[in-house]
Amino acid sequence: MFLVLLILLPLIFGVGLAVTSYKKSLGFIGTAISVYLFIFSLLAAFNGEGAIQKEITQPWFKMGDVQTYIALDFSGLGAIMVMLTTFVYSLLFLYFISVKKNYKNNFYGLLLIMFAGLNGVFLAQDLLLFYFFWEIVLIPIYFLIGIWGGKNKVRANTTFFIYTIFGSFLMLAGIIYIGFHLQPESYLLSDIKGLTTQYKDLQLLPILFLIAFAIKIPLFPLHTWQPPVYKASDTFVTVILSALMAKMGLFAVVNWFIGMFPIKSLNFDWLLYVVGFGLVYASLIALRSNHLKRIIAFSSIAHLALIFMSLFTYSEIGIKGAYFQMFSHGIVVLGMWLSYDYMHRRYGVTDVKSVRGLAKIDPAIAVFWTIFCLSNLSLPLTSNFIGEFSMLNALFLYNPILCVMGCIGAILSAAYTWRMNNAILLGSPNHIKDKPKRMPAILYLVFGLLSFAVILLGTYPSIIFNLIQN
């Protein structure tokens, strides 16, 4: 029942809000659903072999001779990603309550439909079911960008649509090839993996899936849709794109790409050099940029590239570090985007030159923003440090050249993050005439929980590492 609720509860409420004119307490409804599912996901993750059902496998339909299943599994990286998704949505909807902008019911409805699709992606163990949820996520995000986006939203949304449709087409072609050429008994991961390891002429098939997943992360050179989409989208949509949708691609790489194919024998080391170059390139662009959305966007590209590289070291420390960093990055980037939204709404902050001296005017947001920035640059005792240190260690043992690329990215990350932080917070206040109101109590709760999570994971990382080990 728990696995079904993770998908059906947000889906039912999402469709209901999207097609009706209900307007009351929308933020509270979203918060209640998200918190409820977050609590249940915590109980399921930490209760071991308890009473909560963590696996479902039921026949769905036959596609030719290949059986498809409603197969869901709450374990491993999927369980960690579901916890991240429910946590992000809980705080996002809680933040909504304090926002004065009048978002319509269908905005909340589309966000909840995405919630259901994301949970489905992280739980699905049948390839066709996974593809089904993968596509469900894309439908609401297209409308969220196209309707509630800002300047240049049409062009950004069109670019995003072309990229994602191209990736989806390649993945579908790969699924059809598996079904009709390899002819597995089912699309379950266990059945597909047993066949792909027997074939040596599979160079093209893995590339079809890899391109589809790389677009979603996104990886260089398939990243060009991301910065304009982040800049044109409503901040809350950008939160989902950055904190969660990017993790869809990384999760797919782990669960399906590495899970299905004999990657070691296929020799993808050349790809890591391309991704490493992209990491340094994105970091340099972030360093040269002034607009906060652009800086955070390219910062995410760099951090996600390092996670991808670490996964392909095939080492325990590299994989554990990547898993940890996927969770940590989701929390830190959520904190940075919500802080940006708060500063933008109250003080008109858009770039590093728009406002100065914010620490003297609003010390509360200055403290929270600094905590998230310190974690983004991987200061010890913050969550990103644990994952980044583990990943760089793994890269050094695997290939020192790749480690050098990662270290350059880490140094540049410290430079552009601290430049961004100092430019906004320090100096004499400007462009702000009226004394601002006190930060609402509900935002203290949101930013406080995020800051607590950043520090807790930085000082007690075994919370996540124990889940990974299990």
Written description of the protein model:
By secondary structure, the protein is mainly alpha-helical. It has two domains: 1-266, no CATH class; 268-470, no CATH class. Helix content is 74%, strand content 4%. It has 20 helices and two strands. It has a two-stranded antiparallel ribbon. α16 runs parallel beside α19.
Write the layout of secondary structure elements.
Blueprint: H1 2-19, H2 26-46, E1 55-63, E2 66-73, H3 76-98, H4 105-123, H5 127-148, H6 153-182, H7 189-196, H8 204-216, H9 226-232, H10 235-260, H11 263-266, H12 269-288, H13 292-311, H14 316-347, H15 358-361, H16 363-376, H17 383-398, H18 400-425, H19 441-459, H20 462-469
Antiparallel strand pairs: 1-2
Helix pairs in contact: 1-2, 1-4, 2-3, 3-4, 3-10, 3-14, 3-19, 4-5, 4-10, 5-6, 5-10, 6-8, 6-9, 8-10, 9-13, 10-13, 10-14, 12-13, 12-18, 13-14, 13-17, 13-18, 14-16, 14-17, 14-19, 16-18, 16-19, 17-18, 17-19
